Amino acid sequence: MPVEPRPSPWAFPPASAWPADDDVVAMGADLEPGTLLAAYRQGLFPMPSGPRRRDPMAWFSPVERGVLPLDGLRVTRSLRKSVGRFEVRVDTAFVDVVHACADPRRPGGWISETILAAYTRLFDLGWAHSVEAWRDGRLVGGLYGVAVGGLFAGESMFHHERDASKVALLGLVDRLRDEHAEERLLDVQWLTPHLESLGAVAIDRADYLARLPAALALPEPRWSSPRWSSPR
């Protein structure tokens, strides 16, 4: 079971005070576990506001929020064939996954050592998870995010071999598909063409916030379960 950290000394503004046309709803605070969990429970997530370490943290709640319906994941014929090439593991290489996602050669990179340290603390407390694709003993793809009840907030993903990150996503969705699947919330932050091709959709901020409390109240998925079903 995850360990609840000390409460944050920071208070985020209520949703009623958020700007209606801006994804950034707050600035500042810290990245302590209690602050991060308070943010996710309120529908927020952090990203640096600038490249310098002294730049304040920005807290986002996208006006149009990307989510991946668990029954809407698209599995192409080629992806279905790729599943057998990889071994899917959970939480065996969290730091390595985040490091790979933070590769400075990737365009738009934002994951700093500060972010890595913060999410590693969440991982140590049982709130953050990695889903990994391995081949021939090598980590070749994966994703990481934060799980609070029935919310999984995806942060980033990477691949070193074709379809490796997609197979990791299949592994994640498989673990979220249980008796509570209809109420679980797989948050992908923003809808990108890549995520849209996999079945992600955009919903209004108000819709996301309305669904969030029911998701948070659910039990966590069975992360250690060896479940793996054929992709649908």
UniProtKB/TrEMBL annotation:
This is Leucyl/phenylalanyl-tRNA--protein transferase. Keywords: Acyltransferase, Cytoplasm, Transferase. SUPFAM superfamilies: Acyl-CoA N-acyltransferases (Nat). Functions in the N-end rule pathway of protein degradation where it conjugates Leu, Phe and, less efficiently, Met from aminoacyl-tRNAs to the N-termini of proteins containing an N-terminal arginine or lysine. It is found in: Cytoplasm. The keyword Repeat does not apply. The gene is aat. InterPro entries: Acyl_CoA_acyltransferase, Leu/Phe-tRNA_Trfase, Leu/Phe-tRNA_Trfase_C, Leu/Phe-tRNA_Trfase_N. GO terms for molecular function: transferase activity. HAMAP family: Leu_Phe_trans. Its EC number is 2.3.2.6. It catalyses: N-terminal L-arginyl-[protein] + L-leucyl-tRNA(Leu) = N-terminal L-leucyl-L-arginyl-[protein] + tRNA(Leu) + H(+); N-terminal L-lysyl-[protein] + L-leucyl-tRNA(Leu) = N-terminal L-leucyl-L-lysyl-[protein] + tRNA(Leu) + H(+); L-phenylalanyl-tRNA(Phe) + an N-terminal L-alpha-aminoacyl-[protein] = an N-terminal L-phenylalanyl-L-alpha-aminoacyl-[protein] + tRNA(Phe). Coiled coil: none annotated. Belongs to the L/F-transferase family.
